Amino acid sequence: MAYQIPRGTQDILPGEVEKWQFIEKKARDICRTYQYKEIRTPIFEHTELFLRSVGESTDIVQKEMYTFEDRKGRSITLRPEGTASTVRSFVEKKMFAAPEQPTKLYYIGPMFRYERPQAGRYRQFVQFGIEAIGSNDPAIDAEVISLAMELYKSTGLKNLKLVINSLGDPESRKAHKEALVSHFEPRIGEFCADCQNRLKTNPLRILDCKKDRDHELMAAAPSILEYLNEESNSYFSKVKSYLTDLNIPFTVDKNLVRGLDYYNHTAFEIMSDAEGFGAITTLAGGGRYNGLVESMGGPALPGIGFALSIERFLAAIEAEGIELPIAEGINCFIVTMGDQAKDRSVSLLRDLRKAGLTAEKDYENKKMKGQFKSADRLKARFVAVIGDDELEKNACALKDMETGEQKDVSLNELADYLKEKV
Ligand code: HAM
Fold first, then answer.
1. Run of H or E residues at 124
2. Ligand 1 atom 16 nearest Cα
3. Domain annotation covers residue 303
4. Is residue 266 part of a domain?
């Protein structure tokens, strides 16, 4: 029996992988200009880490984690997101002691969630995310959002929508939570079982329910924005005014609550409103998590970040019909005639590659015609033909496939000659 790939995962093959590399490079480049440094954390962590940070009442923890026992009976979980591990490392490696703060980090890597697969939703997906830990300046909120928007825009994406909200500080949230409970409690029997649980554990999450979203109590629910205390309100106003300064259009959605428990103050999502984009329109999400570092045993430092998946990024690019500028073709293909030429081509190929040129030769004993076909398929700009005559002169007949020009070039000078031409 032939094996099949697990549901919700993908093989990313040559031809497609170049697009991934392109996005990853864009992400790394923008992080360099914004001065976020890469962090690489393990793919698995102690389960406890995610229970504590992402939150026990969230869908991720309750339904979606890949959790297993290792051989010593310890509970291990494949990371469902990157913030928890980053903050764990920030605390464990005492990054807060570095003289330059905030600590600005980014990551690119696979995350795992046992979700129902559909377009744009996978069980293994690659997140690019950033975290800025240690600053309570609303300008850093605007910076994080700006980096995300600039990254999308740098690929040519246009149909982007930024939605923001404030989830307030603990005091504002407490007042809001009480208002939500009084609002939903009398009629909670009309809601799904999950919402009935959420009323006790985390009533804010009721607002995010897909099943009950059309219930009349939803639209009428008390908004967090009405319960923000003065400090939370002025923080949110400052974030909005910085976004305006940066010319980043946004809409405020008072029902944007996000699916992870660590958030407070600024929360945001970036959506694609491209026509033909699938049912899942959220490209990226993030927000502030001011209590998280302390709850993981670190100092009381604030943080903010966001993450996006490359899967959805590429889906948006496709929906907008954008062709990524991915270089095709190779610099040179070596065609040989006869055994001696074939032997000589081995070190010649090495020399070309050593000079940084992309070069290839035949390894299947193809006839001349077949070798030219390969050169064609590989979109070789130059074809270097070596036969007995050429070999005697230590040269090749070099054909420029773009112009059709042909001339003899010494094998010793071929690399330098090609480097000048390409
Ligand atoms: P999240 O909203 O759970 O937030 O995920 C962020 C992004 O990851 C989503 O907007 C989406 O692009 C992508 N994503 C999530 N699940 C899937 C999936 N099953 N398939 C494909 N893509 C997916 C977080 O993960 C937070 N850690 C973000 C953050 C960083 N907040 C602060 N710092």
1. strand 124-133
2. 121
3. yes
4. yes
Domain end, chosen from 277, 297, 319, is at 319
Q: Whose CA is nearest to atom 33 of ligand 1?
A: 305
- Residues 270-285: tens digit of each pLDDT: 999 998 887 888 999 9
How is residue 161 annotated by DSSP? E
How far apart are the CA of 297 and the centre of ligand 1, in A? 24
Residue 179 to residues 185, 199, 220, 222, 264, Cα–Cα distance (Å): 10, 11, 12, 7, 17
Cβ contact 333:359 at 8 Å: yes
270 and 144 assigned to the same domain: yes
> If residue 50 lies in a helix (H) or strand (E), which one and from where to where?
helix 47-53
Measured distance CA(14)–CA(273) in Å, rounded = 29
Whole-structure pTM value:
0.94
- Shared domain for 131 and 279, answered yes or no, is yes
* Residue 283 and residue 138 in one domain: yes
Q: In what order do the strands lie in the sheet with 103-112?
A: 37-38, 103-112, 124-133, 303-309, 282-288, 264-272, 160-166, 251-252
Among 359, 347, 421, residue whose Cα is nearest residue 384: 359
Contact 267, 166 (CB under 8 A): yes
pLDDT at 59 over 80: yes
Ligand 1 pocket, residue 287 CB under 6 Å? yes
Atom of ligand 1 nearest to the CA of 258: 2
Query: Which helix or strand (DSSP H or E) is residue 335 part of?
Result: strand 330-336
pLDDT tens, 397-410?
Answer: 999 999 999 999 99
Q: How far apart are CA 204 and CA 256, in angstroms?
A: 10
Burial of 209 by CB count in 10 Å (0-12 exposed, 13-18 middle, 19+ buried)?
A: middle
Residues in the chain: 422
Maximum C-alpha span of the chain: 96
Last-in-domain residue among 319, 349, 384: 319
Q: Whose CA is nearest to atom 14 of ligand 1?
A: 309
Q: Ramachandran region of residue 36, left (φ > 0), alpha (ψ -120 to 50) or beta?
A: beta
Domain that residue 375 falls in: 330-417
State how far the Cα of 407 lies from the Cα of 405, in Å rounded to an integer. Answer: 7
